Amino acid sequence: MQKNIIYFLVIAALALTLSACGGKNTDSDKNSQATEEAASQEVVIKASSWEFDQTEYALPKDTPVKLTVENISGAHGIEIIGQDIQIRGGKSKVVNLPAGTYEFKCNIMCGTGHSKMVAKLVVS
Ligand SMILES: [Cu+2]
């Protein structure tokens, strides 16, 4: 009986390890990690069901900024529209954007209010 439990635990541990390694490791992920140290400031976007904590977030232009998405409730992430930048809740990415206004939206199907989860990055 106890053997069965141990067997089950080993399988569960293996499954967890495999799924953790399953995420794709793209070049842009590597780049963002390499530049993480250079970010001079951090902007935290707090996501809950179903809104971001601000409608606009100010960022300095042409400056590496660590963008962090924090989930307060539910599971959310962001996709900066028109840019190839996606950040899952609980993660950070260093971005370096020219001046402009960038809309972003939640990129994880999170329920009934999902499509209302939009906000802006104002880079100046
Ligand atoms: Cu969503």
TrEMBL record:
Domain of life: Bacteria
Gene3D superfamilies xrefs: Cupredoxins - blue copper proteins
Keywords, comma-separated and alphabetical: Signal
Lineage per the UniProt record: Bacteria, Bacillati, Bacillota, Bacilli, Bacillales
UniProt organism field: Cohnella terricola
Keyword Nucleus: no
Signal peptide start and end residues: 1-22
Protein name as catalogued: Cytochrome C oxidase subunit II
PROSITE patterns the record matches: PROKAR_LIPOPROTEIN
Chain segments annotated as transmembrane: none
